[in-house]
Amino acid sequence: MPGKALALALMVALALAPKLQAQELPSQPPTREDLAADARLFVNISRNALDWDEPTEPFRMVGPLYFVGTKGLSSFLFVTSEGHILLNTAMPETGGLIVRSIRKLGFDPQDIAIIINSHAHPDHAGAIAELKELSGAQLAIMEGDVAAIEDGGRSDFHYGADWQVMGFPPARVDRVLRSGDTVTLGDVVLKAYKTPGHTRGSTSWVTQLSDGGKVYTVAFPDGVGINPGYRLVREPSYPGIEGDYRKTHQTLELLQPDIWAAHHTQHFDMERKRQRAETEGVAAWIDTDGYRKFIAGRRSAFEALVNAELGVEQ
Ligand SMILES: [Zn+2]
């Protein structure tokens, strides 16, 4: 197996089967423990295996929603009569790719009026400062993640000590969001749900978008990922992290989107859906089952890690 495919298989295995034993994995790749012990290794493996820095063609998904991210990292543009909303900016080094994608679609990055985010880690908040500077956009961030956005990740509960690896250029927050707040521009209304766990202010977004005379509920879930080294129960990474994850699962289980998308493109099988959309149109993006399975999968991964910490046989 080529190195890249091997690393991807490893990442998938780590994400989906945390109780997988090291001896079941190929011998060379690092274990979850290795990745927990070395943030630089974790980032380097992830960015190579999951194509974080690889350019990809931008495209329209549904109604006013466009994909402008990299091959592995989502960045979404909502185009309205009043300007654009940008959700996520990928890595610090990939701001230029997002700008290029927006221009390629025929839009002006300077028309970005509002920037919002999924969570304050470098693979999603990396180029916020650059794009804010370029556009003069208002930056709206969920309380809980405001400090980390403004100090470039130094206050992150897990990666604060590794901010030289996991940090990103800081940006000033103009609007602090609370759960249930809405961000509105033109006829696009996005509702923000605080879904903490992965970071203290992880944010899931829900909106209604019309396309071809039909209205679709579109969700962007976040907060459920558990990185190597996170502690949930014993010596928790932050007090209350276990309860935060549980509340986040409940919040996300109540949502019933027609269409969903996540901050990592592999999570919602973007490539396959994008190819299908060429012939099927919007129907290719409808995936209520996929959403339910994604949340359920993340919940069982969480329970498995909780049990492992407690020494419960599985
Ligand atoms: Zn993250």
From TrEMBL:
Q: What class of enzyme is it?
A: hydrolase
For whether the record's keyword set contains Signal, the answer is yes
Give its E.C. classification number. 3.5.2.6
Q: Which GO terms describe its molecular function?
A: beta-lactamase activity
Which residues are the signal sequence here? 1-22
Any idea which UniProt keywords this protein has? Hydrolase, Signal
Has the keyword Hydrolase been applied to this entry? yes
Domain of life assignment: Bacteria
Annotated Metallo-beta-lactamase domain ranges read: 72-263
- Please give the NCBIfam families that the UniProt record associates with this protein: bla_class_B_core, bla_subclass_B3
Read off the PANTHER family from this record. Answer: METALLO-BETA-LACTAMASE DOMAIN-CONTAINING, METALLO-BETA-LACTAMASE DOMAIN-CONTAINING PROTEIN
Name the chain's protein.
Subclass B3 metallo-beta-lactamase
Which species does this protein come from?
A: Ferirhizobium litorale
Q: Mind giving the lineage of the organism this protein is from?
A: Bacteria, Pseudomonadati, Pseudomonadota, Alphaproteobacteria, Hyphomicrobiales
